[in-house]
Amino acid sequence: MKPRLALLAVLWTSLSVAGASEPAWLALPGQAPELASNPSTPAKVELGKMLFFDPRFSETGTVACSNCHNVMEGGDDHRPVSIGVHGQKGGRSAPTVWNAAFLSAQFWDGRAATLEDQAKGPVVNPVEMGMKDLGAAMDRIRRIEGYRPYFAKAFGPGETLSADNAAKAIAAYERTLITPGSAYDRYVLGDATALTARQARGMHLFAEVGCSSCHQGPNFSGPALPVGTPFLMKFPTYPASPYVATFDLAKDQGRFESTRSDADRHMWRVPTLRNLVYTAPYFHNGTVKTLPDAVRVMASTQLNGTLVEADVVDIVAFLESLTGPFPDQQMPRLPPTPGDLLQ
Amino acid sequence: MKPRLALLAVLWTSLSVAGASEPAWLALPGQAPELASNPSTPAKVELGKMLFFDPRFSETGTVACSNCHNVMEGGDDHRPVSIGVHGQKGGRSAPTVWNAAFLSAQFWDGRAATLEDQAKGPVVNPVEMGMKDLGAAMDRIRRIEGYRPYFAKAFGPGETLSADNAAKAIAAYERTLITPGSAYDRYVLGDATALTARQARGMHLFAEVGCSSCHQGPNFSGPALPVGTPFLMKFPTYPASPYVATFDLAKDQGRFESTRSDADRHMWRVPTLRNLVYTAPYFHNGTVKTLPDAVRVMASTQLNGTLVEADVVDIVAFLESLTGPFPDQQMPRLPPTPGDLLQ
Domains in chain A, ordered, with CATH? Predict the structure, then answer.
């Protein structure tokens, strides 16, 4: 076997153990895991979809979850970093909501344990949806009378219009935003024709050079871990990579920014590789514009190597096989707005 | 008949002629009229829906047609005035896109002859979608490779990715955004149970006091006029109404602002009254928060009268009967974004 990655000899030895053995290639399950405390029901999913698309509980009434997590496309917002209320730019690129239900922790740095916890973050982030607090957001929802029957249907009668229930409904909806059945999935489930020869070659290269050390499991986001335990890796592992400066990859210190713990410097949750065709530009700061560049960056910053161009092409072809299919979705109907809700 | 509106005697006399006779109550057709130059096809509608929901041809990549014309709700944006790119506020309240296909001219002041013309306006408005020009917008669309087959399907092979074709597709989609079959429509088509007694009373009052002099026809937006001829009325007709100051109704001079012709001072296209339940706050500047207030304002500024409260309630009940039904809609799938499309 000719070495595919020009690595420091010592590294090659250690990596080749993990890299050369084929990983367990797993298909994405047809259902996402859910919390015992939030079993999915059609009523919750319906309400969650309404809330996900409702801009009215952002300060200006213009920013819904769906603005930065556009499920009509890649579940992100196509931008390097997102833009929230008052035209303010966020600090990181919006991660895709597609298949987020399979992650053991949420946000780029894994600081939210669950989809339910995550859903409450952007609402009160001053540069995202900009509400003063969750109480103010729920006051908005409560004033939209038409939401009451939907909360009642999802959570029973009584005072069920709470931020916790809104977050539960949104999480239940997000658990439907999954894409099993990609070409890759069909291939590993036995359809040998589902991948092109190039894609199949790229798949084995992906393992051979070491990508699958971290990007493993059905969602290519790491091993199965308990809910709330993010699968974290250091990025960049090799800070001397010339790409670190080119793409400004080390300025944001990842999980350290929220924990202020030295152990968390440059630690990031390993993101899914599904649907990358739809989620350019790449990385936490959105500086890497193309999938071939993203592969080159990873080989350099994480594996300290350089891939030959033919291998970049093959690995990209494999990554493209992780695309869709996206479920057909009906648009939600949102209840009417009181005329004095927004200023 | 007791006079429902306390009017100046001379006015009452003139108005009562139009007001007292029942107008022709017409149901909304099941299909919107289309231009001979733009016959609707399923392929155009599909492409138009994609474009309508695509934020990528706004400067920041964050503002789609659907942001200010939210068809998951009332076809407007729930706000007094809209917010476009960079958090900039527009000068007027977004008019609803629902049933706009039945209007003889577009925008509050009727300055666009057709839906096709209208569609090109907000794209290059610096406070709405903010593109330098339509060429720049189409450059964005052209760079999204996945659009090519959809344009080819809608407009044939060859170089069909033009702003004119994009506008035609959006217009074709908008012609599907219609709401025949409301309680009112069912009533005038023969279902005597479709309106409540209060709504039926409100309907006749609506004619009796003179609302239907202007708000006539199946869309309650005026008589059938040739395409491009707006049905314009002066608003406020009675500038001494105390509501003019309360709601700042005369500052914006309507059609005059675009034509600079004295004859157009305070002239406005008569808007539809369908789906008002969903389109608060009301009027061109979004200052009137409730439907009862909107009725009181109109009685005062347009008919120089004051309705008794019981009549306001009945007319509001009638207006509520002009709501929906909104067609079920599948979300469009948008093609992937090149990573360097947006900065």
Answer: 9-30+180-320 (1.10.760.10), 42-174 (1.10.760.10)
